[in-house]
Amino acid sequence: MARGEHSPACARRWRGQAEARQWTLWQTTQAIHGCCGVSLLKAHRLARGWSARQSVQELEELCERQELGAARASIDLLNAWENNRARPRPQTIELLARLYRANAVRLGLAGDYCEDDGGTRVVVVSGVDGRSPYQAEDRIDDDIERRALFHHALLGSRSAMSGRLLAEVERTRQDLDRTLALATVSEDQLDRLDEQVLRYRREYITSAPLPMLYRLMLELSDVRTLSATRQPAMAQRRLLNATVMLALLSADALMKLGDTRQAHAWYGTARIASDDMGDLRLRALVRAQEAMLPYYYGDLAETVRLAREARMLAGSAPSSPAALGAAAEARALARLGEHKAARVALAEAERIFSRMPPEGHDHLAFRFSERRLQFYRIGTLIELGEEVDWTPGPSGPYAIDPVLILLDQATHLIRDGKVDDACHLAEKALLQVPPEHRTSIVLNRARALLSEVPPARHRSVAVRRLAELLADATPAS
Q1: Exposed site from 114, 293, 322, 454, fewest CB < 10 Å?
Q2: CA distances from 290 to 134, 220, 267 (A)
Q3: Structural domain contains residue 22
Q4: 302-338 residue pLDDT tens
Q5: CA–CA dist 141, 267 (Å, integer)
Q6: Is residue 429 part of a domain?
Q7: Which of 70, 100, 130 is the last residue of a domain?
Q8: Cβ distance 476 to 208 under 8 Å?
Q9: Number of independent structural domains in the chain
């Protein structure tokens, strides 16, 4: 990669946008050339997603297929031509034009003195005032329409989940992925962004997932605009940190809403941003949070893998990602029946937490607090089959956690043959959760519990009452 060029990931994102917008290869080439700082010749290759080696091979096969003689090209020669360190011979220019279905002008190997505009172009604008080097009119129109959609959803009498809104959630993530590789932003803007992210982390704990998701999309739209042109290293790190936190909150909200596909994709976006930032503790946090998704939706081995990866990245220093990774691993191992390993992991989580600095009274998402430790400890002990003397107090800032614990207890009561007690406890859990927090993650857990009731007990009054409650229940939206 020559000095001043963007990374290959930038061209990859342009190809993704080109596919979505059904651009021609020439339009894609212009976009990559205008944005990524590469020659037109190289932009043709990147627009096709070819490596230098693959491009040479394609040229050789073309010459053989059309009986054009020897290609007389190599990877070193191609790199020299693409980076303007050498110029191909006229015969080779002809071959390259055939390969890329272009002419010498469009290859950047001849001047264009025509007075017409040469047909449809993709206009790539430089980053000005923090704006993205996308097609300016299209991007502005898209953002205005998308923001209006989320604002309308928030202002409605009740937020409703719809395919259109969730499609825009997906598009916001895709647009964010495309701009992560590209980034002029003032200190005041960054300070405001840091304050906003902290506020979202504080409010997320008590907010219903769906309206919070729409608010996060609005904030991420602003972050994407600021990130669209490359920033000085310190500013870029702060933007990436904000991107990671907001993407994690979005993923968690989607997980609670039961949209596992989009939740997984948003965790992927958080990974991209954290890996780009290079902060090991932040990378560990993403893995530890992501471990929750397979735990609640079926793949306990993947939870263990992600939790262990988080612990490895977090290192030996006590931190929230390290403690969460150990606690998540303990709970998953207990459910898998690996009781000895689960106890070791739980003890490690408690040891890490005891060495962490005092948490204070500020409840923040992703901070491993005493309440979070208690949640994971009780969940692990229940899976280990131990008697847990625990009665949920006022839900406080955490609305869903106590309900999930009660449903875990009810599940084990069923397995012990105490069907009526289990159904009474599950009914109590569902009725105590605020309606706006009665999301798919809660209802699916209760339905899984009900599916474990032996057929002979289906006519029990307690079972029928729980079944009727679930039949009438719809996920919060």
Answers
A1: 114
A2: 31, 19, 6
A3: yes
A4: 999 999 999 999 988 899 999 999 999 999 999 999 9
A5: 27
A6: yes
A7: 100
A8: yes
A9: 2
Residue tagged 């909200």 (tokens): 253
Report the distance separating Cα 430 and Cα 412, nearest Å.
17
What is the rounded CA–CA span in Å between residue 384 and residue 216? 37
Enter the DSSP assignment of 4: T
| Distance of alpha carbon 13 from alpha carbon 178, whole angstroms | 5
Angstrom distance (rounded) from CA 429 to CA 445: 11
- Boundary residue ending a domain (54, 71, 100): 100
DSSP assignment of 419-458: HHHHHHHHHHHHHHS-GGG--HHHHHHHHHHHHTS-GGGT
For 13-43, what is each residue's pLDDT tens digit? 888 888 888 888 988 888 888 777 888 899 9
pLDDT value of residue 183? 46
Full residue range of the structural domain in which residue 431 is found:
391-476
Q: Are 225 and 131 in contact (CB under 8 A)?
A: yes
Give the dihedral sign, CA 149/151/156/159.
positive
Look at residue 62 and tell me if it is in a domain.
yes
What is the 8-class DSSP label of residue 6? P
189 occurs within a structural domain: no
What would the two tokens of residue 53 be? 């080696």
> Lowest-pLDDT range, 149-163, 294-308, 334-348, 416-430?
149-163
